[in-house]
Each structure stands twice: as C-alpha cells, then as structure tokens.
Amino acid sequence: MIGMFMRNKNRLHLFDIKVSLTPAPNYQGVRLSVEPVDKKGLIQHEAANQYKPRTYVAPFAVRQSSDLTITYYRNNQLVNSIYLPMTFNKATGKKVSITAKPNEKYPGQGGAFSLVNGIYSNKGLSYPDWLGWIGDDLEATIDLGKLTTIDSVRMHTLNQNGSWIYLPQYVEVLTSADGKKFISGGKSSTFVTDTLTMGWINVPVQKKTARYIKLIAKNYGLIPDGQPGGGTKAWLFADEIQVF
What we know:
Immunoglobulin-like, eight-stranded antiparallel beta sheet, four-stranded antiparallel beta sheet
C-alpha cells in the first residue's frame, strides 16, 4: 500500500503517520488504515458533524462524504495530524482499471484507485494523489457494481504549462451495461478552475443507465515550439474521477 506521510520541512520525523486508502470489501466505500512510524502513541480519528474523536484500533470503512481528521498523541501531547476531506459520489471506492501505466514519479496512492478514493488535491502538484503520464492518454474504466443512472462525469486535472503539464485535448465518456460494448456519451474540453492551476473537465451524459464508465483523456501531444519543453511530449495529470 502506498500511503500519505505528513512531513515537517520535507524530512521524515519520529512522529509521522501514514494513511492508506484502499477499496473497502466488495468495493463498498474506502478502507482507511493508519500506521505511525512510532508505535508508542495514541491515534484518534473524527469526522466533523458526524462523530466525536474515536481511538483508532483497526482499519475502517468510510462510506459517505466526510471531513476526517486523524490525530496522533504521545505522552498526552498532539504531535501530528492529517486532515482528509473525502468527497463521495457514484464512483467512489469502486473497482477501477487503467490501460496505460502512469510514470513512476507520479503513481498516485495505490495506482488507479487514486482516481476514485474520494480525495483530490487542493495543494497543486505536491499532493501525493496525482497520476501523471508523458505522452500517453488516460483511459480508465470504472465498474459501478450495478446498472446506475448517471448525469455527468468529471475529471480533476492540472494545467501548468511552465512545468510541461497541459490539459488534455478532450475528455470523452463512454458507457456500457456489460463492460464489452461501449457507447459514447459525450466529449468536453471545457476546463473550470477550482484552485491555483487545478480544475475540472465535466462531461454531461444526459441520464444514461450503465454499470461501466470508460473515461478517455486525450493527451495534448507535443508541446509547441517556443514554449518550455517545446517539441517534447506533454504531461497529463489526473487525481480524481467523479460520477453523478
């Protein structure tokens, strides 16, 4: 499992904690596990407006949108905390696969599952959830588990041309009832910024009923001459796919 370490000044400290997000049993939610580097303290977790602090004793499943806080105490003193705003939608925690392996520098947390783990970056490229490809397209297939009515699908991505990172040419969504025959539900290249150079490309699909969702993000291709990295293949980044 690939987890999330909180570091002070980019150095690993004795009291750092690691949070891992993996599929819950039967793909019903997200399984959250916590591991401290130092095992002599107390770990607690709480969800704002849902439940008060609880002592962490074993991995647990999250099955709804939650503003989670993981805290680590030693000698009755708070030494570290992680804030995890988890946003659930119809794709969260579901089985997902990708055709092109991401670059080893940006594998996400748990590979393809990063795209449906309920977490997306609000801190730019430094966040560990990003998957990145050089020149390759992103093709992800999500199994919703049953026939489901969907209205739209969107992808969180990054537009940072100075770092050779470009928006995809377009995002296309295809749907299927059996995972074999897919029908295009629509395309979009409209990018709506949410924070910094990050944002969403949303594809309306007009109330399709499907079990399988395939999202294709077409890589920008070669960076134009005269731009940073001109003549080389562009980076494509994604850290979350949401289905509504």
